[in-house]
Specification:
The complex is a heterodimer of chains A (257) and B (182).
Chain A (H helix, E strand, L loop, with lengths): L2 H11 L5 H13 L1 H18 L11 H8 L9 H11 L11 E2 L3 E4 L11 E6 L8 E6 L4 E6 L10 E7 L2 E7 L14 E2 L6 E2 L2 H10 L14 E2 L8 E2 L16 E2 L1
Parallel strand pairs in A: 10-12
Antiparallel strand pairs in A: 1-11, 2-3, 3-4, 4-5, 6-7, 8-9
Helix pairs in contact in A: 1-3, 2-3
Chain B lengths: L3 H12 L3 H23 L2 H18 L10 H19 L13 H4 L7 H15 L3 H13 L3 H7 L4 H19 L4
Helix pairs in contact in B: 1-2, 2-3, 2-4, 3-4, 6-9, 7-9, 8-9
Classes of the chains: A alpha+beta (257), B mainly alpha (182).
Chain lengths: 257, 182
């Protein structure tokens, strides 16, 4: 293991990098086992220090709040399980054009809990023709939320990926862009465009929304999850050429509308 | 109290979607994990947001936890700690860099811990003790309180680059001292 890699891992564990570098390391960890192990070792080495903290009970109602906000079980990132489902559906994916238009495949899944809002949840496995799904998109009809998770997409050289949502009258393009050379969009970003105003899930937007509701920085554009509060119509997920690199493992997130 | 094997089993059950396992993890560990978040963000409401996000992540990412490549408790602590650090990097709190952070090292090797943890804590304490005072303080304050390089520089009245070098040297020394065993 190189010293450089281990230094990065250690500095990550003690939180010494900026937000962009932290995000980059997390992305890299998804496919770099050495880095992942180096980080895990540092976490384990320093764990006794974290355990010196005092125990403090959170509010009694917090557990209920957490459980109410949990994504349905389909959000489980157990990609292996989803891949099995995807394989069965892959053959109906359509490849169009040089870069490929890709079809969303819907697989019905069970909701997380009976106590949650009734409604159907669908998982769309977006495939570019390879073995593994490139993106997994989960649509919760009850809440109108769409969760996007890149899985194993590989972008052709010099191109990037876009996710198109076509619902009712609107057409929205979510650009998935992990180009490091564009620091403003470092990490994945999702943009809504097309004459409906533009919301960019970048640092600026996050601050603006956070400023508006400083007490509850929830529901802002964050990378953990994607929310599209819109009437769901047909959905088509496409790959299009675009300069930039693919963020291979970052969850893309944004809130529209 | 849950040991690490119990925690690993519960995480595996959470990965299968068992809510009862999720509840048990939360009940057993939320006070210490909340303490971790609170020590970094230093605001109850915000620390609860961090904890919520962390447990949501536990729910969605449980299947990615591999017991062979990491310690279950370290995995959970890391989720909370990094969530808290990300939180304060997004919205930096008004920090008093002159604030005293006492007692953390002394709390290492708490006699309540199980034997393995006790040994790990003892080693860490020994190895941190071998560092010079400023380096040790920087590592502890960065890790426990989430202080950035700039904050450490201000606190210890040294240039940021000097702090960076101190940390690098200190971490390398710590690794050597602790040996390869985690």
């Amino acid at each position: 293991m190189s010293d450089d890699l281990d230094t990065r891992a250690a500095e990550y564990v003690i939180g010494q990098q900026g937000a962009a570098e932290r995000e980059a390391i997390r992305r890299e960890m998804e496919h770099n086992a050495d880095l992942r192990m180096a980080v895990a070792r540092w976490e384990a080495r320093l764990l006794p220090l974290a355990q010196t903290t005092s125990f403090v009970a959170p509010s009694p109602e917090l557990l209920a709040r957490i459980k109410a906000g949990l994504p349905p079980r389909a959000a489980n990132d157990d990609v292996a399980a989803l891949r099995d489902a995807v394989r069965r559906w892959r053959n109906i994916a359509t490849l169009a054009g040089g870069i490929a238009a890709v079809l969303a495949v819907f697989v019905g899944v069970r909701s997380f809990s009976d106590a949650r809002k009734p409604g159907e949840t669908y998982v769309a496995a977006v495939n570019r023709g390879g073995d593994a799904p490139a993106l997994i998109v989960r649509v919760d009809l009850a809440s109108g939320r769409v969760f996007v998770r890149p899985v194993a997409a590989e972008t052709p050289a010099g191109k990037s990926l876009e996710l198109w949502y076509i619902g009712g009258q609107s057409r929205r393009r979510a650009e998935i862009d992990g180009a490091r050379e564009r620091p403003r969009h470092a990490g994945a970003s999702v943009r809504r465009q097309y004459r409906q105003g533009e919301i960019r899930c970048d640092g600026r937007t996050r601050r603006r929304i956070a400023d508006r509701r400083p007490d509850r920085p929830r529901g802002l554009c964050r990378r953990a999850r994607s929310r599209v509060t819109a009437t769901l119509g047909a959905m088509r997920l496409c790959y299009r050429p675009f300069a930039g690199k693919w963020a291979s493992s970052t969850k893309v997130s944004c809130r529209f509308g | 109290m849950l040991d690490k094997a119990d925690i690993a089993r519960l995480i595996a059950s959470v990965a299968r979607g068992e809510e009862s396992a999720f509840d048990r993890l939360y009940d057993a560990l939320s006070p210490q994990l909340f303490g971790v978040a609170l020590r970094i963000v230093r605001d109850r409401a915000q620390a609860e947001d961090v904890l919520q996000e962390a447990f949501t992540r536990v729910w969605t990412r449980a299947a990615t936890f591999d017991p062979a490549s990491g310690d279950a408790l370290a995995w959970l602590y890391a989720i909370v700690r990094h969530g808290a650090i990300d939180h304060i990097r997004r919205a930096p709190p008004a920090r008093r860099v002159e604030e005293r952070y006492d007692g953390w090292l002394e709390n290492l090797a708490d006699p309540r811990d199980e034997e393995g943890a006790l040994m790990a804590a003892g080693s860490l304490r020994h190895c941190l003790g071998a560092l010079d005072e400023v380096t040790r303080a920087c590592i502890v304050e960065a890790y426990c309180a989430g202080l950035s390089g700039r904050e450490l520089a201000e606190r210890h009245a040294r240039p940021e680059n000097t702090i960076k070098s101190l940390l690098r040297r200190g971490l390398a020394a710590l690794k050597t001292c602790l040996g390869d065993a985690p």
